[in-house]
């Protein structure tokens, strides 16, 4: 089987399930476990730091790990950076068979920091019987030095290992999400997957087909397309209730604009709507000449991207990280007419839209309140990136046109 530590809502699990690979996920969060159950993924609800390793020895082909990144992420307090020497010490000790976690934890500024050392506890136990055959780990970019420490230990055990930073947009994810990756194997040379996408379309050459242009938010959500549905949710809130998905008054603004025939694209997150079609010069425009963009949070330095681009990195789990659709005047490059009248109100992104921008299927069975769903999505590995990372280990070849694992 494949063991998935910190399995979350199924970013690694979804492509494995599509392939029919037996995977067991260890996860603590109740709502992530419910989402996994609804998606048909096998899960043990447990604390990864407390679960014994002996039931897994002799049964594990591959090991996956995406430890919680709140303590390390730029979106949080980043106390994990202060704790980094303690985490490095825990990894070194666990690799040598010494469990010093309890003593080190008392010195940590953030109790979650040592979770990044937990994969080594499992790896040391499995190594005693020559397992696993392969490893894939993912975290925020600041964890790359820790992955390099893991790599040095794994190489001493006979693994081929690659570590580095990959951009999810280079693999067809509609989001420029950069992550630190570790790939290891006992049976093949570990190397990153070949990118399938680039910021601009590349022509075919003597070396083969060029890369496709990065997938835009509009393309991923089906906005402006006629051959795929737009992910939607009901206006009264998703599973578990929750507030309206857009602020008071915005629904009437959008409805009135449609009646006047000004909308050339259905409003973000709306159920139903008029026939979808692209605006001038391939843009997707809002009413009265306004163009939609996604603002990644409500802070002054928030990333704002046009729907014709991939999203910036999506962070959730904190009030400051609320993503909203905002209307902006189109640029001269779009060729659209100038806006008239007031800009439409900002509209909160829906969980279905956020999941699609993370490359989950439109009908993925998210469980919990909106806040719980957003937290699961923000913490997940994009399934399309995961598919490319997993493909060589599970005997599958992916091309730029083949995304079966993330379908």
Describe this protein's structure.
- Mean pLDDT is 81; it is low at 225-286.
- The protein is built from twelve helices and 13 strands.
- The two termini are 22 Å apart.
- Strand 2, helix 2 (30-38) and strand 3 form a beta-alpha-beta unit.
- The protein has a seven-stranded mixed beta sheet, with helices on both faces. The chain has a four-stranded antiparallel beta sheet with strand order 11-10-12-13, with no helix packed on it.
- The chain has two domains: 2-200 and 377-406, Rossmann fold, CATH 3.40.50.150; 217-376, no CATH class.
- By secondary structure, the protein is α/β, with parallel strands linked by helices.
- DSSP strand content: 5-15%
CATH class designation of the largest domain:
Alpha Beta
Residue-averaged pLDDT: 81
Low-confidence stretches: 225-286
Q: What would the CATH topology of the largest domain be? A: Rossmann fold
Task: Give the neighbour order of strands across the main sheet.
Answer: 3-2-1-4-5-7-6
Draw up the topology in text.
Blueprint: E1 2-5, H1 13-19, E2 23-27, H2 30-38, E3 43-45, E4 62-65, H3 79-82, H4 84-95, H5 101-105, H6 118-127, E5 134-139, H7 144-156, E6 160-167, E7 178-185, E8 197-198, E9 212-213, H8 217-221, H9 250-259, E10 291-295, E11 304-306, E12 324-328, E13 347-348, H10 351-357, H11 370-379, H12 383-390
Parallel strand pairs: 1-2, 1-4, 2-3, 4-5, 8-9
Antiparallel strand pairs: 5-7, 6-7, 10-11, 10-12, 12-13
